[in-house]
């Protein structure tokens, strides 16, 4: 695909995201008019409709940030592992982040946002390293199937440990359980201001490594022959992926499958060049999470379905399709 065609598709994607954002602030328990949206954006909150728009704006922005972060994290993990099944949720990285957050809050009474994000990123890093070490053991090294199985086992163990840590705290169990499902309903401007700089750092690291990710796709030997420092590129891209996943999990809970679905879709449509794949993944990931949030509010109103459930419903069939497409005997 030519540069002009990709640029055109990117502009179309931005237009779609804008349309989804308009739907996000206008649809919910109470639908609002275009006039309410314009008035709310100008700073008014006098009517019920305008107040509803003001309340929905931060959750829409949070959905954009979290969706983009998870998609970038998944794209980076797939690049550095050359694993089509790599995803923060499938590899147990989100579960590690969640477990450390729960431990930090229940055992050490952490409450400051940056402290919570710090332990979330640390948990994501520990889980990523453990899964890679386990998946690399034995003959054949870190194959996609071994990494997926290791991640599934790690995720199951960490989810059980997280539940065990939550159960004694009856007073906080309900809020923890809601957070564990994954959602953006608790978005506020203060929380966004806290997490946005951390996500920006993680995204910047991934974008800086885009050219190196292209070299990794050719294989380690050829990448070294082209002058690429394979170990450094993998480490930097891994740090970016872990920071993005950890910060996103800390603010919105563990939301699965975004990092699996979006990079695959963008790679099929726009090619494997990470200089384009990463921006497209961020844009598509943001669009998916905003759309999932809208669907969750519309189909169950006056209640709502958390975005983590919507993405799981979408992602599970896609995961099965990817496994079949890659032919399990070759994984």
TrEMBL record:
Chief location of this protein?
A: membrane
Q: Which Pfam families match?
A: FecCD
Keywords, A to Z, come to: Cell membrane, Membrane, Transmembrane, Transmembrane helix, Transport
Q: Which GO biological process annotations does it have?
A: siderophore-iron import into cell
Q: Which domain of life is it from?
A: Bacteria
Gene3D superfamilies noted in UniProt = ABC transporter involved in vitamin B12 uptake, BtuC (1.10.3470.10)
Q: How does it sit in the membrane?
A: Multi-pass membrane protein
Q: Which InterPro entries does UniProt cross-reference here?
A: ABC_BtuC-like, ABC_transptr_permease_BtuC
- Decide whether keyword Transport is in the record: yes
* Membrane-spanning ranges: 60-77, 89-108, 114-135, 147-167, 235-265, 277-299, 305-323
According to the UniProt entry, its GO molecular function terms are: transmembrane transporter activity
Spell out the subcellular localization from the entry.
Cell membrane
GO CC, one annotated term: plasma membrane
| Similarity annotation | Belongs to the binding-protein-dependent transport system permease family. FecCD subfamily.
Q: What is this protein called?
A: Iron ABC transporter permease
Supply the source organism for this entry: Leucobacter tardus
